[in-house]
Specification:
The strands form 3 sheets. The protein has a 3-stranded antiparallel sheet. A two-stranded antiparallel ribbon has the order 2-6. A two-stranded antiparallel sheet has the order 4-5. By secondary structure, the chain is of the alpha+beta class. It is built from 4 helices and 7 strands, in the order E-H-E-H-E-H-E-E-E-H-E. The protein is 30% helix and 32% strand. It is globular and about 40 Å long.
């Protein structure tokens, strides 16, 4: 009998460069942060991710994508949630140095659920 962990669904708005790196990691992990990126911040709701991908990534990168993925809930509970605006504008803040550990707790594959150009 296999033991399944409870999972939490997260979303990540991303541009084409980061998405290509995720593809190279076989849709199972997020790439290391750049020196100017001390925090990896997936978001807690799809609508917020859509706004960022559509309104920011398209403007700056020519395309924006919303990804969805599952992370073990016990691990997610260790990460601080930051309110970046209104009630529903919530981000999970993962320090860059903990991203490998975060990636180890992803369950299944990262999938693209929206694309904007």
């Amino acid at each position: 009998m296999t033991h399944r962990h409870a999972t939490t669904t997260l979303w990540r708005p991303t541009g084409p460069v980061e998405l290509d790196l995720v593809r190279r990691l076989e849709w199972r992990a997020w790439p290391p942060r750049l020196p100017e990126q001390p925090i990896f911040y997936p978001v807690l709701n799809e609508e917020y991710a859509i706004r960022i991908a559509r309104d920011w990534n398209v403007k700056h990168d020519g395309a924006g994508y919303v990804t969805r993925f599952e992370v073990e809930s016990d691990f997610v509970a260790r990460c601080p949630v930051q309110q970046a605006g209104g009630r529903t504008i919530l981000e999970l803040w993962v320090p860059a140095e903990e991203l490998d550990d975060f990636n180890a707790h992803i369950v299944g594959r990262i999938e693209v659920v929206h694309e904007f150009r």
